[in-house]
Design a protein that fits this description.
This protein has about 500 residues and is an alpha/beta fold. It has helices spanning about 10-15, 20-30, 65-75, 95, 115-120, 125-130, 135-145, 155-165, 185-195, 195-210, 225-240, 270-275, 305-315, 320, 355-360, 395-400, 420-435, 440-460, 460-480, 485, 490-500, 500-505, 505-510, and strands spanning about 5, 35, 50-55, 55-60, 85-90, 170-175, 215-220, 255-260, 300-305, 325, 330, 330-340, 345-350, 370-375, 385, 410-415. It folds into 4 domains: about 5-95, Glutaredoxin (3-Layer(aba) Sandwich), CATH 3.40.30.10; about 115-320, NADH-ubiquinone oxidoreductase 51kDa subunit (Rossmann fold); about 325-415, Roll (Ubiquitin-like (UB roll)), CATH 3.10.20.600; about 420-510, NADH-ubiquinone oxidoreductase 51kDa subunit, iron-sulphur binding domain (de novo design (two linked rop proteins), Up-down Bundle), CATH 1.20.1440. The strands form 4 sheets. A 5-stranded mixed beta sheet has the order 2-1-3-4-5, covered by helices on one side. Strands 13-12-16-14-15 form a 5-stranded mixed beta sheet.
Length: about 500
């Protein structure tokens, strides 16, 4: 009997030689059926090879092409306990202790197999949505408590309700897949590992707001995701799941558009400008896109993870989703662990899990063995969290109370050898490079901020320059047009407050 072996086709696994491993398995076990699945999210174990057995799937990893012959000869095809074996995949603590709603299928199925998608719960939400009117769909999303997973955390149902209420001959739905925050990769994993979840979520959203055209705006650095999405969209259309108009055209037409590498196009108005073929610059609000967005028509812009959560909500009901989480942070969040972390990867947990649990129970502390000095939460514009704050609950409000932010759920770990003054300087430099240049506080403030930090770290009139830096941060926070300039002071101020010695040179002097 042929055995089924799963080898990931996720970009992270490919970077570690997954294709070579798959080819080696094909030679060593020619009768085996090899399925290229998404990643389970345990990136330190990639390529993670799984073998289907009578007891379920058994995991081996990290597997190299050179390991394959020995594994096959030693009994991997029978699921035997070998040096690289981790036992049944679903029983591995890293996975078993998660609440996977959005990522339930990622790593489980062939990403492009519609039959596998449907066999694992796909299309149920869409089937229910097709029997509901638009307002009922919006109400379900409202009651679920789903908020934007791109960083802002705005209630999705309210945004949809606004677009639904608009009278227009054309409405658009845009998926913001320009995932540019440092240490984040959840969007990429979802698009490469379960693209139909995103597509189904977009079709449901189109029914809710009355949109007939949709766009996925994908960052140019994701070529594997682009290839997968193009094929997935074609497969979905060929299967007729977009629905048909009377003239035989698809009821909802979905397009893939590639960005050009601008971080600022992760901001919704800049993204819409780019989609229109213009320079990616922030637009002054109002009007908001839900009223006047793409080509001046009502437009909904949602993040990948937001839209991919919608099929579960429609399938299982708003209450089932809202039963996860705490306070106004309901449902689950795919957290991403990166930096100096022993077990980097993706962890989907209900809001309320502590940062400590993510860093140590899942992440296993640092890979280097050094102490964790700080964690940057929420991307390059997020604050630095010191070890004394690791007990904080991960939720929008609970993090804000501690001066931190959720962002896209990324956690980047820095060990005790890191100079946080340098990291603050980098935050200003990042803003300088990535600013769209439209507003002066961001365009000029970031340059002056970087220069001022450099002066402080050189020992030039430190107290006076700290005052200048604080004034610059006030200006950028209050006068910038968007979060690019408005949030850049967050990492700077958090570093200055918690690690002043790294700016003043006393930390270096003490070490010497």
């Amino acid at each position: 009997m042929s055995v089924t072996i799963y080898v990931p086709c996720d970009a992270a696994a490919l970077s570690m030689g997954a294709n070579d491993v798959a080819n080696a398995i094909a030679k060593a076990a020619p009768d085996a059926t090899i399925i290229r699945n998404g990643s389970r999210g345990m990136l330190w174990l990639e390529p993670l090879v799984e073998v289907e057995t009578d007891k379920g799937r058994v995991a081996y990893g990290p597997v190299t092409a050179g390991d394959v012959q020995g594994l096959v000869g030693g009994g991997m095809l029978e699921g035997k306990d070998l040096p690289l074996c981790h036992g049944p995949t679903e029983e591995m603590p890293y996975l078993a202790n998660q609440e996977r709603l959005t990522f339930a299928r990622v790593g489980v199925t062939d990403p492009l197999c519609l039959k596998a998608y449907e066999a694992n719960g796909g299309l149920v939400g869409l089937g229910k949505a097709l029997k509901m009117d638009a307002q009922a769909i919006v109400d379900q999303v409202k009651e679920s408590g789903l908020r934007g997973r791109g960083g802002a955390g705005f209630p999705t149902g309210i945004k949809w309700h606004t677009a639904l209420a608009q009278e227009a001959d054309q409405k658009y739905l845009c998926c913001n897949a320009d995932e540019g925050d440092s240490g984040t990769f959840a969007d990429r994993m979802l698009m490469e590992g379960d693209p139909y979840a995103l597509i189904e979520g977009m079709v449901i959203a189109s029914l809710a707001i009355g949109a007939s055209i949709g766009y996925i705006y994908l960052r140019s650095e994701y070529p594997h995701a682009a290839t997968t999405l193009r094929q997935a969209i074609k497969n979905w259309e060929d299967a007729g799941f977009f629905g048909w108009n009377d003239d035989g055209s698809p009821r909802f037409k979905l397009h893939l558009r590639m960005g050009a590498g601008a971080y600022i196009c992760g901001e919704e108005s800049s993204m819409l400008e780019s989609l229109e073929g213009k320079r990616g610059e922030v637009k002054v609000k109002p009007p908001i896109p839900a009223i006047s967005g793409l080509f001046d028509k009502p437009t909904i812009v949602n993040n990948v993870l937001t839209l991919a959560a919608v099929p579960y909500i429609l399938s299982e009901g708003a209450k089932a989703y809202a039963d996860f989480g705490q306070g106004r942070s309901l449902g689950t969040q795919p957290f991403q662990l990166a930096g100096d972390i022993a077990c980097g990867g993706l962890v989907e947990k209900a809001f309320g899990v502590s940062m400590y649990e993510l860093l140590y129970d899942f992440g296993g502390g640092t890979r280097s063995g050094r102490d964790i000095k700080a964690v940057q939460a929420g991307g390059p514009l997020g604050s630095f969290v010191a070890a004394s704050e690791f007990d904080m609950d991960m939720g929008y409000e609970s993090m804000a109370q501690r001066g931190a932010m959720m962002g896209h759920g990324g956690l980047v770990v820095f060990n005790d050898a890191t100079n946080m003054g340098e990291m603050a300087r980098y935050a200003m430099e990042f803003c300088e490079i990535e600013s769209c240049g439209k507003c002066t506080p961001c365009r000029i403030g970031a340059v002056r901020g970087k220069e001022t930090i450099e002066k402080i770290m050189r020992g030039e009139e430190q107290s006076k320059n700290v005052e200048v830096l604080e004034d610059l941060c006030d200006l950028m926070e209050t006068a910038s047009l968007c979060a690019m300039g408005g949030l850049t002071p967050m990492p700077v101020r958090s570093a200055l407050k918690q690690f002043p010695a790294d700016f003043m040179g006393t930390a270096k002097a003490a070490a010497e």
